[in-house]
Every structure is written in C-alpha cells, then in structure tokens.
Amino acid sequence: MSNVYYKSTRDDSLHLTASQAILQGLSRDGGLFVPDHMPRLSVSPKELVSCGYREVAYLVMKEFLTDFTEEELRTCIDRAYDEKFDTPEIAPLVQKGDAWFLELFHGSTIAFKDMALSILPHLMITSARKNGITNDIVILTATSGDTGKAALAGFDSVEGTRIVVFYPKDGVSPIQKRQMVTQPGKNTKVIGIHGNFDDAQNGVKAMFGDRALEKELAEAGFQFSSANSINIGRLVPQVAYYVWSYVRLLAEGAISEGDPINVVVPTGNFGNILAAYYAKNMGLPIAKLICASNENKVLFDFFRTGTYDRNREFVLTSSPSMDILISSNLERLIWLVAGESAEKNSAFMRSLAETGVYTLPEESREKLSDFAGYYTDEAGTAESIRDTYRECGYVIDPHTAVAAHVYRQYRKETGDATPTVIASTASPYKFTHSVMTAIDPKYDGVEDFALIDELEKLSGVAVPRAVEEIRSAPVVHKDTCEINEMQASVKEFLGIQ
Ligand SMILES: *Cc1c(COP(=O)(O)O)cnc(C)c1O
After folding, report:
1. Which of 146, 376, 381 for mutating ligand 1's site (highest number of atoms within 8 Å of CB)?
2. Whose CB among 3, 131, 246, 368 lies 3.0–4.6 Å from 66's, allowing a Cys bridge?
3. Could you tell me the CATH number of the domain that includes residue 431?
4. Average pLDDT of the chain?
5. How far is the CA of 439 from the centre of ligand 1 (A)?
6. Beta-carbon neighbour count of residue 475 at 10 Å?
7. Does the residue 51 lie in any domain?
8. 3-state secondary structure of 232
C-alpha cells in the first residue's frame, strides 16, 4: 500500500499527511486539499456482500487516510456509525419504481451530512493528537441548512473543540432553523447572517485566509478548522457509501460483479457527487454521474457549455441545501480535469473571483464526459414528490425529488436502463410543508410543525427522534449579524479582545 499525501488545488508543492489536511481544513492559498494520487480499492465489492457498513467504511477510508493506524480509524468509525443512526444498516438501499434510493438520512439530524459529520469530530481529535496540537480547535462553518445542525450535533461537547455556525437568516427551512437554534452545548454558537449561503461561505473562507486573525487566535490558544465539505475529512467518509450501495446491489442480486451502475446526486456544493467520482476513480464501476440541480442551475450550464458563470440571480427554492451558486468542491474536479495543474486551476479560480466566470478549454471538457448535468424547476420538484408518493407510496424530500425528477428526464432522453442509485439526501420530515403541499395542495398555508403528524399518517414512517426533540426544545441561539460582522462575532464568542 502506498501512502497518500495531500497537496492543494492551488499549490503543487505541498505534501501533507491526511491528518494534517483534516486539521487545516482549507489550504492557506485558498485551495482545497486533494490526494496526490487516487488510491484503488484493495478488495472487490463481491468480497464485501456479507460485511456491515462499518467494515466497508473502513476498507474505503483506510486507502485515503494512510497515516491513521488501523486501530485509530476503526475507533473513529465505531464511534460514528452507532446507535445515533436509527437503523443498523446505517444507509439502507431501497428499490422504488425503476430506481434504487440510497437513504442517507438515518443519522441524528436526518440529512446526509450526518454520514460525514458524525465521524469528522473523531477524525479531527485523532488528527490533533497525532500532530501534537494543544490549541483548542475552532470549527467555522457556513451552512445552507443541513451542515450546520449535523456539525453542531457532531461537535457538541467534544473536548478541545468549539464550533461556530453561520446560516442565511432567511434561507433555511423552519425545521432546519429550529434544529440549529435549539442546539445545546457550551462549545456551540449559531449565528444568522443578513445574506445568503454564498455570503456565509465567502465570509468563512476569508477568515481562514486571514493571517493576522490566525496569529491572534494562536496567541489565545485557538486554531481554526473547517467542517464544511471543503475538508477532505468530509469527502472521504462519503466515498464509502457509494461502495456500500454497489455492495448492496450485489447482495440483492440486482447486478453482477463488474456491472456498471449510474448515480444521480442532488447537488449543491458538489461534495456528494465528487465523492461518487472518487469512488469511480478507486475502481467502482460507476458509468454516469448525473448531477441534479434546482433552479440555481449553474452546474447544469457548466456541464452543457464548459463555462461556469455565477453571474445570475440567486433563487430561493424548496430545496435550500442546493441553493448555491459557488460550488466549492467543483474546484477539486477542475483541478483533476486541468491535468492536476495547480497553476491552471488557480487561473480559473482567479477568474471566478474577479469576474464570476471561467471557461474550460476543450481538452479539459472532454474529461467531463462521465458527468451529465440536468435540472428541475419548482413545479418539477413538487410533481416528483407527488408522483413518487402516488406510484410507490414512498414520500421523498424536495432535494431527493429534484434527483428523482432529473432521473426521469435522463432516462426518457437517453433510454439508458443501467441500474441507478439516487442519493436520497434528507428525510421528508425536514421539509414537511413543501412535501405535504406537493402531495395535496390543501395543506398550503399550514406551517411546517403542524404538518409533522399528518406526514406520519400519510407516509407510515414514524416521526424521527430528531424532529420529536426539537418540537418543544427552547431556543438558545438568537444572534444575527451583518456579513461584515462575522469575524467580530467569532472573536466575541472566543472571548478575544
Ligand atoms: C448538502 C445537501 C445537498 C447538497 O450536497 P453537496 O454535497 O453540497 O452537493 C443536497 N441535499 C441535502 C438534503 C443536503 O443537505
């Protein structure tokens, strides 16, 4: 087994271990950490059909986190994928209609972010110990709704850590918001910003890049890290569930060893679908990666034209976790298709920062042929929820619905009947109003919390613990701030100055 080291998408000369990359989060040059070579799976999926989720996760993650000992990594995995999940399968794969839904929402905050954020704190603490870090780690997070709560739940009361979450004050669902503002834990802070997700993400990135701030923090015994999907420690655990889905399809007899599958991923920051691409690069037989967007269809346009153009109106949709115009993790793909060139990638990213646009040259575009971009508008999303319920008695959330609708379009257009896995990224209980009104317009105007019991009756799926808990929990985080006050709020929370 060869060791994997990490360099930056904007600096080829870096040579960090996995634990160093996890601790740092984002590279100082503003780039993202990427493996210096793509490891291969050391076992064939067929050998894994009788394994549980944790074993599969170990066999995938060990290939990327080569400076972790077996014991360290297995301990992290055991602590992450336990009874916090409401099913021992962790991520069940269920067949509905002509697709397989990979349910990634059985963790403590009922969105797929739990798959990575239940393990990230353990990876982070292990990394700190391995590297002799004595500072407290301050996790700075921008959220479009789901990362925030999942990160808070993961880091709540974890010794040696603090966590600050910024969310767009008017850009998350009422249930997402309640989940965050009721978060207990002395080491947690939640702040609503007067801006959208991109503003939050830019503000956080600016703090990571601020050397003067870094020095001030160090003097007070703190250092920043990131729980956003820019952290390689978020991406690696996500690769595991694509391998897992393939193993489950084998176990179900739906495919034979080596058969190709397609995946459809409702996409925002491009982390989830990039994990699928990493799985493919490890040797998993994924044919097409279908990137599903909502009306913020910057990625659809990018895959169709080779031009990434964020200069457009930002639309608030019923799938808020995909309301993003700057998909951070795309940078890792751009770096790959630009021939793993930090120089070329940096030029694209500079152009993006200065003009909001960049265009890939033809030879890079050709390397994107594994991807297909599609999108769905609000009417299509609602139709997808309604049709899936009527045809299969299965209730899906608006993000998953975007993917399901896109899959229908893709299949109609191409006739491609390859067995297909749809990443099901959130429980419908997180978006009861959108879901219930899609199924029956009579619920329009009824607020989210009032529809929880109705959804239970309709779906036959019990109200998850995560929702039950917040129905009566007191609000503990009331702060809001302007975009230019983000840094000051972090310092205030840490008691600096
Ligand atoms: C975060 C999120 C997405 C988008 O995932 P990315 O990795 O950011 O592309 C989609 N659906 C839900 C429910 C999410 O929470």
Report:
1. 146
2. 3
3. 3.40.50.1100
4. 96
5. 23
6. 13
7. no
8. helix
State how far the Cα of 183 lies from the Cα of 167, in Å rounded to an integer.
14
Query: Range of 102's domain?
Result: 93-110+233-461
Ligand 1: distance of its center to the CA of 495 in Å?
33
Total domains, the chain = 1
Measuring CA to CA, which residue among 226, 185, 189 is closest to residue 204?
A: 226
- Tell whether 204 is covered by a domain: no
What is the pLDDT averaged over residues 441-460?
94
If you measure from the C-alpha of residue 400 to the centroid of ligand 1, how many angstroms do you get, rounded to a whole number? 10
* Mutation test residue for ligand 1: of 236, 272, 273, 427, the one with most atoms within 8 Å of CB: 272
Strand partners, 359: 307
**pLDDT at 306 exceeding the cut of 80:** yes
Nearest atom, ligand 1, residue 105 CA: 13
Sequential DSSP letters for 11-51: EEEEEE-HHHHHHH-S-TTS--EEESS----SS-GGGGTT-
pLDDT tier at 259, thresholds 50, 70, 90: very high
| pLDDT of 140 | 95
Grade residue 334 by pLDDT with cuts at 50, 70 and 90: very high
Output the CA 291–ligand 1 centroid distance in Å: 12
The confidence score (pLDDT) of residue 229 equals 84
pLDDT of residue 228: 85
Q: Where are the alpha helices (DSSP H) in 119-173?
A: 120-130, 146-155
Q: Which has the closest alpha carbon to 53: 1, 93, 7? A: 93
**Contact, 118 vs 107, CB < 8 A?**
yes
Q: Which of 242, 303, 322, 385 to mutate to test the pocket of ligand 1 (most atoms within 8 A of CB)?
A: 322
Question: What pLDDT, in 10s, does the model give residues 132-175?
Answer: 999 999 999 999 888 999 999 999 988 899 999 999 999 888 88
Ligand 1 center to 276 CA (angstroms) = 13
**Residue 269 domain flag:** yes
Residue 145 Cα: closest atom of ligand 1: 15
Q: How confident is the model at residue 174, as a pLDDT?
A: 87
The pLDDT of 411-425, averaged and rounded, is 98
Q: How confident is the model at residue 350 (pLDDT cuts 50, 70, 90)?
A: very high
How many A from CA of 306 to the centre of ligand 1? Answer: 23
* CA 130 to ligand 1 center in whole angstroms: 31
The structure's pTM equals: 0.94
Ligand 1-lining residues (CB < 6 angstroms):
111-113, 146, 229, 266-272, 321-322, 399, 425-426
Atom of ligand 1 nearest to the CA of 271: 7
